[in-house]
Design brief:
Blueprint: H1 2-51, H2 55-66, H3 69-85, H4 89-95, E1 97-99, H5 101-105, H6 115-123, E2 128-131, H7 139-157, E3 162-165, E4 167-169, E5 172-173, H8 189-195, H9 198-215, E6 219-220, H10 244-260, E7 264-270, E8 285-286, H11 291-296, H12 299-307, E9 312-315, E10 318-319, H13 321-324, H14 334-344, E11 350-353, H15 367-377, E12 382-383, H16 388-400, H17 406-421
Parallel strand pairs: 1-2, 1-12, 2-3, 3-6, 6-7, 7-9, 8-10, 9-11
Antiparallel strand pairs: 4-5
Helix pairs in contact: 1-2, 3-17, 4-17, 6-7, 9-10, 10-12, 15-16
Length: about 425
């Protein structure tokens, strides 16, 4: 009996031991599973937070991460933030402007850059300068003017200035349409689009980007991304075609082509001005397209440009009242710039207005108001205001009176500086 008692006691101890081991294992498994679930929930929260403004943005982020570009972007943004943190408010506000050279120097026609240009850039270190036919006389003159301007700016700011030009090809070609430069015009985009061959679009962009970078330009306001869906559109020769199926792949090919040459490019004129009559050079133009309409047509070339990594998008002076409920042009309308371009399409590159010298907008707001309106809409850069100094001062005053916060200024300047830093790599 004693032996039986010992056996029973031993069995009991073993059973208790096995039970305790089971509890430990189960507890550890539960803890691990709970931790995994918690981690998954946090990831889901992060995704939800990132995509709450746009499912497109979440999709782009996921795609970028899989290609390993997210870390690069974060590093570039951090570097830009560090630079911006060391800038004065006046320097930051100047970065928001892209102007004609004469707006900075106040000369009648600028064809060279000397000590006076440097003095003017020290006072107004604008984000970019746009050159036109009257500024571009010959290869040697243009190369000298641009290299001197870039050198002065680098000394002042420590990073590049945008040196831009409209060089689409065909009717819009400041360089190729001047025989002094000795370069062949790649022709109208309508003719390239008609071939249906995207390699021709890319080749044209490579050709243009190559001769522009040799001259010293680092930004081309191309490709035109409008769909010329009406026969009397002013974009009929500049557009690749009359439908998204033709235009979108051509735009993507051109962005690839331009970027391969080391030049930045700009997709224009968001959300699309090719399907209307009238010319925003003279007056405000109007579209009756709804957002659903645009998603099936006008927006598709811009989505292709974004997918290709376009560093800048220009917003046109077109009223989209069926979408916004008002006549405020897209370039100055947060319902277009912020709600659609930023949030719906998830675009985080540089956004610029079209020229604020154009008749479509010059009578809408005063020079001191119009730049503020652009920034409140979500634009990063203010292109060629009619009165640069008044517009610049208007933005400064808006920060000082609280209409704009300095954080809002920083947000745009970081994007601008981040884009410029890619020119150094």
């Amino acid at each position: 009996m004693a032996n039986i008692g010992v056996v029973l006691a031993t069995v009991g101890v073993l059973a208790l031991g096995l039970f305790l081991v089971y509890k430990v294992i189960a507890s550890a498994y539960h803890s691990s599973d709970s931790s995994t679930s918690s981690s998954t929930s946090m990831t889901a929260l992060g995704s939800s937070s990132s995509s709450s403004s746009s499912s497109s943005d979440s999709s782009s982020s996921s795609s970028s991460s899989s290609k390993g570009s997210s870390t690069t972007t974060d590093a570039a943004t951090k570097k830009a933030q560090d630079i911006v943190s060391g800038m004065t408010l006046e320097q930051k506000v100047a970065q928001l402007f892209m102007v004609r050279p004469e707006a900075v120097t106040q000369v009648t026609t600028q064809t060279k850059a000397g000590d006076y240009t440097k003095e003017c850039l020290e006072k107004y270190p604008v984000g970019g300068i746009v050159y036109f036919s009257k500024n571009l006389v010959s290869t040697s003159q243009t190369t000298s003017m641009l290299s001197d301007t870039q050198a002065y700016y680098q000394d002042i700011m420590g990073f590049p200035i945008f040196l831009g030009v409209d060089e689409e090809g065909g009717t819009v070609a400041r360089i190729a349409n001047n025989s002094n430069f000795g370069v062949a015009n790649v022709g109208d985009m309508a003719d390239i689009g008609a071939t249906g061959d995207t390699s021709k679009a890319k080749d044209a962009a490579v050709t243009v980007g190559t001769y522009l970078t040799k001259l010293g330009f680092n930004l081309d306001f191309a490709p035109d991304s409008d769909i010329a869906s009406t026969s009397d559109s002013v974009m009929i020769r500049r557009s690749f075609g009359a439908d998204a199926a033709t235009v979108a792949p051509m735009v993507r090919a051109q962005v690839d082509g331009y970027l391969s040459t080391g030049i930045l490019c700009c997709s224009k004129h968001f959300p699309g001005i090719g399907g209307v009559t009238g010319d925003s050079e003279d007056e405000l133009i109007y579209t009756t397209s709804t957002l659903d309409d645009m998603k099936k047509s006008e927006l598709l070339p811009f989505e292709s440009a974004i997918d290709a990594g376009v560093p800048m998008i220009m917003v046109g002076h077109i009223s989209c009242s069926a979408i916004t409920g008002d006549d405020i042009p897209a370039s100055l309308n947060p319902k277009i710039v912020t709600d659609i371009l930023r949030n719906d399409l998830g675009y985080d590159g540089v956004v610029t207005t079209d020229s604020l010298e154009m008749g479509a907008v010059t009578n809408l707001y005063s020079p001191s108001e119009i730049g503020v309106k652009a920034l409140l809409a979500g634009d990063d850069m203010i292109l060629m205001p009619k009165d640069f100094e008044a517009c610049y001062q208007g933005v400064l005053d808006a920060v000082k009176d609280g209409t704009l916060t300095e954080d809002r200024i920083d947000e745009s300047v970081v994007r601008i500086v981040r884009a410029k830093l890619t020119l150094e790599s």
